Amino acid sequence: MxxxxxxxxxxxxxxxxxxxxxxxxxxxxxxQIDVFDTPxxxxxxxxxxxxxxxxxxxxIYDEMIxxxxxxxxxxxxxxxxxxxxxxxxxxxxxRYDRVEKIDLVxxxxxxxxxxxxxxxxxxxxxxxxxxxxxxDNALRFIRKCHAAYDLVIVDSTDPFGxxxxxxxxxxxxxxxxxxxxxxxxxxxxxxxxYKHDAxxxxxxHQRIVNTFPISRVYQAxxxxxxxGYWLFGFASKxxxxxxxxxxxxxxxxxxxxxxxTTRLHVGSFxxxxxxxxxxxxxxx
Length: 284
Fold this sequence. Notes:
Largest sheet: 7 strands, mixed
Number of helices: 10
Distance between the termini: 54 Å
Strand order of the largest sheet: 9-8-7-10-11-13-12
Order of helices and strands: EEEEEEHEHEHHEHEHEHEEHHH
Number of strands: 13
Shape: globular
């Protein structure tokens, strides 16, 4: 008998992956956690039936949400990561010698323990001495912070259910206050292709535009995410993601990547016409 994992990307669209083995299945205090072993995408982590990452394409997401802001902010040393319990974002951040502190706030301890066991390549740097893990509600945690961070990375699940609070104007205002005068916030903005996701993206972008003086959207192509087309938000108090980009300085670091390049960095902010229209409607 064949075993397949299927996820609805839209009411009339389903994405399916053939499964070799169901490695883990447990309900934590917060969500259903599953890990599958698949022939095409390697190990796949799902939360409440939604793909969070696969071994095959996680590098795209983690590199784009990390290296884009790190290549723009020349002095990012103190960093807050919200979510990202799999460890992929932390892994990329620890590659920078200038980083002094990474505070990781993850609501669900079980996610981190599952990833340590089943996705060790992602979780391999969670024990770095610069990493401090807090099992807490991110809203409660960040409210206590004022001008404490150079960079906030919001690696939450989609803006429905438990993570809905991470896409509100209140939350973005709290992130703004937690950043220093030249701080940057980046977040995942979902897909603009299907209407349900596109509406959520527009709401989120409008709230960020009303909070930060500089707000831009950039894109990446991730095969296992909805429509294979994913967006990130770049919000900043001072730095423009292209005008203040320092490609030569980043290249001098000698970091090896599988998706991100300095040319791709600039290109990722050039958006298709339909998406530009969506954003312009809420920006004005």
